[in-house]
């Protein structure tokens, strides 16, 4: 894999290839693109990374990634403090915010329960969630977790843990996605959509 | 596309999405991965980029990217000075070096002639190539250019420009790639492989 271009370029390629979705070939292409656009792309990117590494931290209340603590959402007086939306990662939080349909606050678990990977409740921000709910302000916890085995295991576990608090615990609806054609959907989604059918 | 995570993260996502092969979604995933691996990945990558941007330059002789000038290949006394392999970009040079079958030196054109994109000979390192050949040491110029319209236009142009010098100008062979099944090959490749057939 020697590029004959010296250790600096080799190191850059090797680090870039560790990004999700990148392999050795795309890392080489990215390196070439960076070296061609030194001032427009490479230096700004190096600086943006160093700055984000220095300044972005998880919010001590909800776990969102932000330079402020508490984060912009937690400190926004316009956000409904009676609603908490539980997500796996900051990426899911960003997706919810892009949609713009949720006006409450968040709780980032930092992962999902997984027997296979040996991830138990203590590895996640579960007790922090129970603690926030216990403060009495929250009326509903919306579980926005992936529709996978680990996601559903985690949802069941959280429902159990929150049962004593008396808050409503809900989940995102399952069904046919917008634009989804039945022919292309998996059987599980069709079955769930059928069970959860509603008056037209 | 607001991520609600502040301008630092937005800027990082937007810069990452300019890398080849990256889109907004993969840039967000990469940003999350970077923020999770601050010390193992994000800071080292920022540093590697800043260092490469600072130190890596095109070789003034052949155009290869290196921290030394002349580059490691041009200053290697073991490399055959009578052979020049002409490539479009440093990426093609790296590919040739990975193969390890070429022991001469290189010339990086910095692009291809393209009527469509308005790229003429003056935008490429053509006169530099003619100059190197004119020094009298070179016996053969091997054109390792892509088998595309622009690549072949460039190859024809270079063959013309080098005709007066009297050096041999050759091209990489065209044919069935190793492991290639006829059924999956395009017609042009099959036709070229047939015309260039050789005794078995």
How many domains is the backbone of chain A divided into?
A: 2
Name of the CATH class of the largest domain in chain A: Alpha Beta
Low-confidence stretches of chain A: none
Secondary-structure-derived class of chain A: alpha/beta
Biggest sheet statistics of chain A: 4 strands, parallel
CATH topology of the largest domain in chain A: Dna Topoisomerase Vi A Subunit, Chain: A, domain 2
Beta-strand level of the residues of chain A, as a percent range? Answer: 5-15%
Instruction: Report helical residue fraction of chain A.
Output: 40-55%
Question: How many β strands of chain A by DSSP?
Answer: 6
Gyration radius of chain A, rounded: 21 Å
CATH architecture of the largest domain in chain A: 3-Layer(aba) Sandwich
Quaternary:
homodimer
The string of secondary-structure elements of chain A, in order, is HHHEEEHEHEHEH
Largest interface by Cβ-Cβ < 8 Å: A-B, 57 and 57 residues
Secondary structure tally, helices of chain A? 7
Beginning-to-end CA distance, first to last residue of chain A: 60 Å
Query: How do the strands of the widest beta sheet of chain A line up side by side?
Result: 4-3-5-6
Overall morphology of chain A: globular
